[in-house]
Specification:
2 domains; Rossmann fold; Histone, subunit A
Length: 297
Amino acid sequence: MQEKTLIVIAGPTGVGKTAAAIKIARALGTEIISADSRQIFREIPIGTAAPTADEQALAKHHFVGFKSITDYYSAAEFEADVLALLPSLFAKSDYAVMCGGSMLYVDAVCKGIDLMPTISTEVREKVLRQYHECGIECIIAQLELLDPDYLKIVDIKNEKRLLHALEICLQAGVPYSSLRTGQVKPRPFKIVKIGLDMPREELFGRINRRVDAMIDAGLVEEARSVYPQRHLNSLNTVGFKEMFAWIDGEMDFITARERIKKNTRVYAKRQLTWYSKDPAMKWFHPCEVENILSELI
């Protein structure tokens, strides 16, 4: 009996993961698990570059647009949901494809998430209120008191992680770092990691063109539709932050558009730095799908 295999398609934003994943899934007769922490929200498909209806018709995608921006969803919940889904996918094929650039979501499935307390609505709202009233500096100051060890290793530019760490500290009553074991959980299937990359000039050109395409597709209208809920953590992301700043009159439209491109490029570099540290990752250009399939089979 052939061993079941989860194929992970990772890489920086804008590199072409979705197109490659569709080709691979179709060749192997399987479906795609989206590992993107923003594409799960149904109200913002343009700003998150979610797979289009045509793309989803080519290969079935799971975990796309299945939550509202008002819903709470975590990497731990994603881990549990994916592990519950995989048996049904493996019953139909020896392979399943997971595609996405959210590093924590990918790691949650491949390595496992440490058991953490469920964050109450009261704690979450308290942290968000502090963040919106006092800024990220207030969150950092509290972490300096509650969990200085974590503050030494976290990317302080990653506001989402800082907020989550403070939530855990307040909910659990112990430092977040004390609950992080870093132990890899065994999985009853094989994991093959495929990283997609290309020369920086080519990647950055793709990112710039994709931002322009998002705007042409209606990003402005999408941002206006969710603007009244701009305080939500689900909207604290590249694309919407800049659009909201423009709507608020803090910058002109051209500046906002170029800022989205720049911040997306910065995020892509951060993703590549993260994935480059994984020795299990096998790297290909997104055009090398036939080589990827040869490697898999």
